[in-house]
Amino acid sequence: MDSFDASKPQLSQVTVKDIGTCDTVNCGRGFYQTSTNVRVSRVFHLGGRANVEAIGQVFNLFNNINPSGFRARVVIPASGAADPNLLQPASYSGDFRRPEQRVGEIGLRFTF
Predict the structure, then answer these.
(1) Burial, 67: exposed, middle or buried (Cβ in 10 Å; 0-12, 13-18, 19+)?
(2) What is the CA radius of gyration of the chain?
(3) How far is CA 29 from each of CA 32, 53, 76, rounded to the nearest angstrom?
């Protein structure tokens, strides 16, 4: 069984290594995804029972690239030759319809 070699992540070529028989739950599931999220908030008392809470959040703080959409075509149908793009990622964080890029938001919450 081949799996992605996470010790050698490269954007231009995915490196694979033989991991033997697949006996564990997530064996051979593909490249891992990482995301560090941070949230800070502070409550301000306005008087009586009224409060306002200021909230700030950042998702994927370190802007990890998180490759996905790996190409699984083994052969090229027209020629029958091996596909040189086998197991290459087709998209990364920040691409269209991929929400894992670094995003921040701020907000206010009023309670009374």
Answers:
(1) buried
(2) 22
(3) 8, 41, 24
Residue 78 in tokens: 């027209």
Contact (CB, 8 A) for 2 and 31 = no
Q: For residue 52, what pLDDT is reported? A: 98
pLDDT of residue 7: 54
- The full set of domain ranges for the chain reads 1-31, 33-112
SS3 of residue 85 by DSSP: coil
Nearest Cα residue to 4 out of 24, 32, 25: 32
Task: Give this prediction's pTM.
Answer: 0.59
- Assess contact for 68 and 91: CB atoms under 8 A: yes
Order of all β-strands in the sheet with 50-59? 38-47, 50-59, 103-111
| Amino acid at the residue 41 | S
Q: Is 8 buried (19+), middle (13-18) or exposed (0-12) by CB count in 10 A? A: exposed
